[in-house]
Write a structure and sequence with these properties.
Layout lengths: L1 H10 L16 H14 L5 H7 L3 E2 L6 E2 L2 E5 L21 E5 L5 H11 L4 E5 L16 E6 L8 E3 L8 E6 L14 E3 L8 E12 L6 E15 L10 E8 L11 H4 L5 E6 L8 E2 L8 E6 L18 E2 L6 E3 L18 E3 L18 E3 L6 E2 L10 E3 L4 E5 L2 H4 L7 H5 L5 E3 L9 E7 L4 E7 L12 E8 L3 E6 L7 E6 L2 E6 L6 E7 L4 E7 L8 E5 L2 E2 L1 E5 L3 E5 L8 E8 L2 E8 L17 E4 L6 E4 L3 E2 L5 E2 L11 E3 L4 E3 L4 E2 L5 E2 L10 E4 L4 E4 L3 E2 L5 E2 L14 E4 L4 E4 L3 E2 L5 E2 L16 E3 L4 E3 L4 E2 L5 E2 L2 E6 L6 E8 L10 E4 L2 E8 L3 E6 L5 E8 L2 E10 L15 E4 L4 E4 L3 E2 L5 E2 L8 E3 L3 E14 L2 E14 L2 E5 L4 E6 ...
Parallel strand pairs: 3-4, 4-5, 5-6, 6-8, 7-9, 8-10, 10-11, 11-12, 12-13, 13-15, 14-16, 15-17, 17-18, 18-19, 19-21, 20-22, 22-23, 72-97
Antiparallel strand pairs: 1-2, 24-25, 25-27, 26-27, 28-29, 30-31, 31-35, 32-33, 32-36, 34-35, 36-37, 38-39, 40-41, 42-43, 44-45, 46-47, 48-49, 50-51, 52-53, 54-55, 56-57, 58-59, 59-62, 60-61, 60-63, 61-62, 63-64, 65-66, 67-68, 69-70, 70-71, 72-73, 73-74, 74-75, 74-82, 76-77, 77-78, 78-81, 79-80, 81-96, ...
Organism: Dictyostelium discoideum (Social amoeba)
Keywords: Disulfide bond, EGF-like domain, Membrane, Signal, Transmembrane, Transmembrane helix
Pfam families: ComC_SSD, EGF_TEN, EGF_Teneurin, TIG
């Protein structure tokens, strides 16, 4: 080990990494700081040489450079201890990495706590270790790489963690195993219920299992070194989500971690250890969210069998949530698989298993049982829809036909079934592939599904690629890159080619063959390979389908004894068609009817398809019933095919009841009205026989100036080529180009000015450049990588000198087409603006890109009353607490503590006193009853607002505006929703639907309100959120919105107002003790977080609003921001800043209302503290721009009466404040 350490010390060099932007020099302060540090560690004397060798970044004033990341390593034996002052002069340092230096820990961390330094610090094998107390410590990431030499490292307190979100203790992986004499850190838990720690990542190497009560950890990586103590503290791991345990010893066994029997928070676990034999089977079903469990048993050293019952029983009862089980080489038998409905992957290789499972779960898609001792035959059907790997076993008999048919075509099967010497893998194949195909043209994805499709990706054209085997042998997914111009696609199954349509089409029959008795064959296209999808009848008799493909279908019908014309009804799936045939005759070049024969049949024998109508019907499509229903009078007769009367020469009209009168004289410039016998003259003519003429033209067509001449027959001007308008007075000016009308027919020339008028998607003097814009972005993470930018960028040939800039970094373009830019960017963090330049034009999307973070913070760290889901930044509150930050009290009612009348609810609630047992805090009930007043929710059907009235406090919510913003963020159009709703009530769904059409447009607004009866989870943009029972869900759909300019975006505005229903001051005396001014808190509106929050409080009622900084734009999630538009003391307007959605936008804010824990019952001078109760309000807003804009809102309210009135307003989103009476 000593030689290895010396070798590493010699070869590693000091390196300083600095983010670079250009050739500017460091500021004087940064230069002095580097010079002093270089002198102390005897390295680089010239600080600017560091900057030129690596990279720098501009300071805020764009005049100097600053250092962001600094890494130093002691390779020349420096003994001087480093202090805080050696680094504090770097004003913009974000990450500090120190290796092999002696560090003055107490002063170093003490000064950091007081004055701050880098956000992330790595201390690699530094000496004189003493874990600091990190109260108010600004650094959020701290990593210690432990030295192998003795030091003062030992116990450290949990209360010292400060603001840390990531704490890592590791040893150098390049060095040998940890010696038994090495001192490893231990954790002393000195926390209590009022002080809880939340960590995104905790990696810890120790000899003692830590006590993690009051810890909430997203990812825990625990390495235990011998001799191990404290295994009982596994009981404290109940708030861990991802757990990895490595017991780094072959000389000690430990008990199975009790976390799995106590916690429902763990999602994923990996265990590498040797566990002691259990006394009974271990039930881990309390881990109801566990999805992945991996166990690697250490098979060296001492002997211990974890099986139950011995010798090979599976020792665990698994939760139904489990999706992956990885237990290779453990010696266990299989668990019961048919009770695990979500299990998709199972690896039990090398376990001495002797038989296949008799039953499997519905989701199992991969079963790895290689290198076992299984004998017998493989059931013919049980495993056909999964990847079954059973190599190196003792199977005999025939391989199931589903695998056998593909054995010679897909090499993976020869691997899965190899080393089974008595297994017969070849034989006749009677199975037939039955494929189906569908496309998603928006996402450019496809689905291939059916039966007998194989276990590897089939052979495909070059312009498509597979991405997923969803169900082996049955369902595949993939993507296609180029626009498919053909109407069909071909795949290869079992060595044969199969043709499938790209889009659904009705069957098209070209030729029909009949043997003259009962056999029929139909040739054409857009048929199917699935015989069960085909139904054929011959003049009402069924014809049994015997063969089906894309081009041919054969069927066998009853025996017909004559050669009469048979009507063939032909149905494939949802499509139907009809032809006719003659027994024994060939029907070639069949031309089917162009319309459906509603009350008749299509005759295709010897002619172009023609409808033959049933008696009593007429018309080209046999849709006219009772033709000539009016009696044809005066000698007229009925044309039954056309359904009209043919009249004699003296009569006319639909029933031949109108006389036919000839005009007395010829109508010279007109026509005779045969019903009156008088002339109808053409324009410009008059008189009884239309022979009197004269019409004037406006301004005589500017004849004197050469404008044009007058056509006096119609009174209209005919202008010369250089003039235009109705009086030929305006010069006609040609444009210098055709205004690129080949690319967009919306481009046109203004012939009055000679200047091109471009459509919204084009710009330039000749409309020659795309007016490009961004609709959505798929970002990369903070390490950098691929970025996908969707929008409109013009077709091929319109990308001159393209460039993408994100923040200050160039995103190097990999590919660009009409709707997508693929580029690569370096590492970064936070929210950035995006610039796309091409053809000399630039588009800038402000704050529309956000580097994807691994974890997100929760509001107020859940106030110490809940756990934080770091994956989305959402609190899960402890029992008795509620709100987005768990800072309001929530009542849990029971039959013993709640009494309900028509007006009030009396509840015995938890006080602020609590007792602690085994690390859990339980509120102690008080005996004082709390009266919760009735809440009445109403929906105003005239103005379209939702009102919540409680104890004379009134909140009102409504959608007020949609604002269209230009490139500079200025309003160019405001749409106020009007009060013209048409109402429809759907009682069984508790839903109210309102519709209106906006004046002067074809834009329609559909607005619905639904009462939510039961709590349910819902997913938005990949996030799993919850909608509570007792609420109102509001949906607004706006269709056919058109932008004024392609660079414009929309802002949805939600207005919240709060008021009172008290008639005067005396009327509100019973709530006087809760009087409180209106206050608005926007401190949690952080554009760098996934979830934003706003709170509005008045009279001890608090409205919580949660906004997701993400929108689904054109079916793709992308980043947005939320802003406060105005706050005037009685009204708050919030704006949701959407991207330029081409087809659709979908956003999803939500709200909740609680009563403050400071609320009091004012009656009879009682002043007891009143716990809050929860009124959740959720609003989902899908916007469909051009096609539709949908706004969905959900207002959750307490279980009381609900009278409905609903809202009318246009696009903007005006949410008014909601009030609850308490």
């Amino acid at each position: 080990m000593k030689n290895g350490f010396l070798f590493l010390t010699i070869i590693l060099l000091l390196s300083i990494f600095i983010t670079f932007s250009n050739s500017q020099n460091l500021s004087n302060l940064e230069q002095n700081c580097l010079t002093n540090l270089g002198n102390k560690i005897s390295k680089y004397k010239d600080p600017n040489s560091w900057c030129s060798s690596f990279s720098c970044a501009l300071s805020a004033d764009s005049s100097n450079l600053y250092i962001e990341t600094l890494k130093i390593e002691n390779t020349n034996g420096v003994t001087a201890a480093l202090n805080y002052t050696d680094f504090s002069c770097f004003s913009n340092l974000t990450k500090l990495d120190i290796t092999h230096y002696t560090l003055n820990y107490s002063s170093f961390f003490g000064d950091i706590s007081e004055k701050g330094l880098a956000v992330s610090i790595v201390l690699n094998q530094t000496f004189n270790f003493d874990f600091p107390k990190l109260v108010n410590f600004p650094t959020t990431s701290l990593e210690f790489v432990l030295a192998y030499t003795p030091g003062t490292i030992g116990q450290f307190n949990a209360s010292s963690f400060g603001n840390l979100k990531s704490l890592i203790f590791t040893t150098n992986p390049l060095l040998p195993s940890i010696p038994a004499s090495m001192t490893l850190p231990t954790l002393y838990n000195d926390l209590n219920s009022n002080q809880q720690i939340q960590l995104d990542k905790f990696r810890f190497v120790t000899r003692q299992v830590p006590n993690l009560n009051y810890f909430n950890i997203t990812e825990l990586y625990l390495v235990l070194e011998p001799t191990i103590t404290g295994t009982g503290d596994f009981n404290s791991f109940t708030n861990v989500q991802i757990f990895t345990l490595i017991v780094d010893t072959d000389t000690q066994v430990i008990g199975f971690p009790s976390i799995f029997t106590l916690s429902n928070n763990i999602i994923q676990a990996e265990l590498k250890a040797k566990f002691s034999p259990p006394a009974s089977i271990i039930d881990i079903t309390p881990s109801s969210k566990l999805r992945s469990l991996r166990y690697i048993q250490i098979n060296t050293g001492i002997s211990s069998s974890f099986a139950y019952p011995p010798p090979n029983g599976f020792p665990l009862i698994l939760p139904t949530s489990i999706e992956l089980i990885f237990f290779p080489n453990t010696g266990f038998n299989l668990p019961q698989l048919n009770i695990l409905p979500n299990l998709g992957y199972l690896d039990f290789s090398a376990n001495s298993i002797t038989s296949l499972p008799a039953n499997i779960g519905p989701s199992l898609k991969y079963l790895e049982l290689s290198e076992n001792s299984i004998s017998g035959t493989i059931p013919p059907l049980l495993f056909c829809n999964m990847l079954l790997d059973v190599n190196n076993n003792n199977f005999n008999g025939y391989l199931p036909e589903c695998f056998q048919c593909y054995y010679n075509f897909q090499p993976i099967l020869s691997v899965f079934f190899s080393a089974n010497p008595n297994l017969i893998v070849s034989g006749p194949c009677t199975l037939k592939p039955v494929p189906n195909f569908s496309l998603d043209p928006v996402l450019k994805t496809f689905r291939l599904w059916g039966s007998n499709l194989g276990y590897a990706y089939p052979t495909t054209p070059s312009n498509v690629s597979f991405t997923l085997i969803s169900i082996p042998n049955s369902e595949f997914f993939g993507t296609y890159n180029d626009i498919m111009t053909a109407s069909v696609i071909e795949f290869s199954f079992m060595g044969s080619s199969f043709t499938l349509p790209l889009t659904p089409n009705p069957p098209n029959i070209f030729n029909v063959h009949s043997d003259g008795v009962a056999s029929f064959s139909f040739n054409g296209q857009y048929f199917t390979y699935n015989t069960s999808d085909v139904t054929i009848t011959l003049s009402g008799y069924p014809c049994q389908v015997t063969f089906a493909s894309f081009q041919t279908i054969a069927c066998m019908g009853p025996s017909f004894q004559n050669s009469s014309e048979l009507v063939v009804n032909f149905k494939i799936g949802i499509y139907s068609t009809q032809i006719s045939v003659i027994l024994g005759a060939e029907s070639n070049n069949v031309t089917m009817c162009t319309q459906s024969c509603n009350h008749g049949y299509c005759s295709t024998v010897g002619t172009v398809g023609k409808c033959i109508c049933n008696p009593g019907y007429a018309g080209n499509d046999c849709s006219v019933s009772n033709p000539c229903s009016s009696t044809c009078l005066n000698g007229g007769n009925c044309d039954y095919f056309k359904g009209i009367c043919n009249c004699t020469s003296s009569w006319s009209g639909t029933d031949c009841g109108t006389p036919y009168i000839e005009c007395a004289n010829e109508c010279k410039n007109g026509q005779c009205n045969y019903q009156t016998g008088m002339c109808l003259c053409n324009i410009g003519w008059g008189g009884t026989i239309c022979n009197e003429f004269s019409l004037d033209c406006p301004k005589n067509c500017s004849f004197s100036s050469g404008g044009g001449v007058c056509n006096r027959t119609v009174g209209e001007c005919k202008c010369n080529s250089n003039y235009q308008s109705n009086d030929c007075s305006i010069p006609y000016v040609e444009c210098n180009s055709n205004c690129n009308i080949n690319s967009n027919v919306g481009n046109k020339c203004n012939n009055q000015t000679g200047i091109c008028i471009c459509s919204t998607d084009w710009q330039g003097l000749s409309c020659e450049s795309p007016s490009h814009y961004i609709s959505s972005i798929q970002p990369t993470n903070t390490d950098g990588g691929f970025v996908l930018i969707y929008g409109w960028f013009g077709g091929s040939g319109y990308h001159n000198n393209p460039m993408v800039t994100i923040g200050t970094l160039e995103c190097k373009i990999n590919s660009i087409n009409e709707s997508l830019i693929n580029c690569t960017i370096g590492s970064g963090s936070g929210t950035k603006s995006v610039s796309v330049q091409q053809n000399g034009y630039s588009y800038v999307g402000k704050d529309i890109f956000h580097y994807t973070d691994i974890t997100y913070k929760c509001p107020n760290d859940c106030s110490g009353h809940g756990t934080c889901n770091k994956l989305i930044g959402q609190c899960k509150c402890f029992s008795g607490w509620g709100g987005f930050d768990c800072n309001g009290k929530n009542i849990v009612q029971s039959s013993s503590t709640t009494t309900t009348t028509t007006t009030t609810t009396t509840t015995t609630s938890a006080s602020t006193t609590a007792t602690t047992t085994s690390g859990n805090t339980t509120p102690e009930p008080t005996q004082e009853p709390i009266v919760i007043p009735e809440t009445v929710t109403t929906i105003n059907t005239t103005i379209g607002s939702a009102l919540i009235n409680n104890e004379k406090t009134l909140y009102e919510i409504k959608i007020s505006k949609i604002v269209e913003l230009d490139f500079n963020g200025e309003s160019v159009k405001t749409i106020n929703l009007q009060e013209k709703w048409n109402v429809e009530i759907i009682a069984e769904n508790n839903t109210y639907i309102f519709k209106q059409t906006l004046n002067g447009t074809n834009c329609t607004v559909t607005y619905s309100i639904e009462e939510v009866k039961t709590t349910r989870d819902y997913n938005f943009a990949g996030l799993d959120l919850t909608l509570d029972a007792g609420g109102i869900k509001i949906t607004v759909k706006i269709e056919n919105y058109q932008y004024l300019n392609s660079l414009n975006t929309l802002q949805l505005q939600i207005e919240s107002l709060i008021g009172s229903t008290a008639k005067d001051q005396n009327d509100d005396e019973d709530n006087e003790c809760n009087k409180e001014n209106l206050s608005v808190d926007t401190n949690e509106m952080d554009k760098d977080q996934l979830l934003n929050y706003i709170t509005i409080s008045k009279d001890q009622k608090i409205l919580y609003g949660r906004f997701i900084n993400r929108v689904v734009s054109d079916t793709r999630p992308t980043f947005i921001t939320t802003s406060v538009v105005s706050n005037n003391g009685n009204s708050v307007i919030l704006g949701l800043n959407l991207p330029h959605c081409i087809n659709s936008c979908l956003i999803d804010p939500d709200f909740s209302v609680l009563v403050s824990s400071s609320y009091k019952t004012c009656d009879n001078s009682k002043d007891s503290g009143r716990p809050a109760w929860l009124l959740p309000v959720a609003i989902v807003v899908p916007c469909v721009v051009v096609a539709s804009i949908i706004i969905i809102g959900a207002v959750i309210y307490r279980k009381n009466r609900m009278a409905i009135l609903v809202a009318k307003n246009k696009y903007s989103f005006s949410l008014r404040k909601m009030s609850k009476k308490n």
